[in-house]
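Per your request, structure below.
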């Protein structure tokens, strides 16, 4: 994409203190957007925003729970008050709590549902209301996973949220298209991040079972995200884009 593709655009990205969310924020800022960068971890959020500022990006850290409706409203209000509008919302925040189905606890289930599904739903709702009020075009992007398409051991609850998020994007086509708001989803596969790199065998394992011979890096995912919130995809909505090096085509288990 051309430099400054996102000039004068304003985005909220949740769960962006590191990993995929941070890279999306960084690339949006490089291309002219102003970004509200959220993370529940204050140190991560502040460090991430500072790094982007050092690269001459316009980025404001906001620490808080991305599933808290009142905090979501705060982020939307801050985007408008500080930057004049809101045009892009990316629901990146999510948690993965592994556990076998027969022994999965309700508190873990509730946490996964609340962060992954409720946080996504209500960020989309708040952002859509503001974009409609502005009478402008807008883009909403959800973060799914290949586990929303293929079964993965010990991820029944998590996988359910990711499949649900993709259905939400499809349903919102009926609700938001009349307002020129697109809603899409990206579904990353194995990706090298700070979290996955804690597993010394992660890259080796996923390189062996990924048809393209390696897991994704965060820029691979960010490139797809930027396309789906850019002017180049204004006629794409309700879609889910899998970014997995071909893994879901053959789906070998890492176990």
């Amino acid at each position: 994409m051309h430099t400054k593709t996102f000039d004068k655009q304003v985005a909220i990205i949740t769960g962006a203190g590191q990993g995929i969310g941070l890279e999306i924020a960084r690339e949006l800022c490089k291309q002219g957007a102003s970004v509200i960068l959220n993370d529940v971890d204050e140190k991560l959020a502040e460090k991430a925003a500072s790094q982007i500022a050092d690269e001459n990006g316009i980025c404001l850290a906001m620490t808080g729970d991305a599933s808290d409706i009142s905090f979501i409203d705060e982020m939307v209000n801050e985007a408008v008050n500080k930057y004049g509008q809101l045009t892009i919302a990316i629901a990146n925040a999510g948690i993965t709590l592994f556990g076998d189905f027969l022994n999965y606890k309700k508190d873990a289930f509730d946490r996964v549902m609340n962060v992954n599904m409720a946080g996504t739903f209500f960020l989309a709702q708040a952002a859509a209301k503001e974009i409609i009020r502005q009478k402008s075009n807008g883009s909403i992007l959800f973060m799914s996973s290949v586990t929303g398409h293929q079964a993965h051991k010990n991820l029944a609850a998590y996988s359910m949220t990711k499949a649900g998020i993709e259905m939400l994007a499809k349903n919102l086509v009926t609700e938001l298209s009349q307002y020129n708001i697109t809603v899409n989803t990206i579904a990353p596969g194995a990706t090298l991040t700070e979290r996955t790199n804690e597993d010394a065998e992660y890259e080796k394992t996923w390189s062996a079972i990924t048809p393209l011979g390696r897991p994704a890096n965060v820029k691979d995912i960010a490139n797809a995200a930027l396309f789906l919130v850019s002017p180049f995809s204004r006629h794409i909505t309700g879609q889910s884009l899998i970014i997995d090096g071909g893994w879901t085509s053959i789906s070998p288990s890492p176990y």
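The radius of gyration is 17 Å.

Regards,
D.
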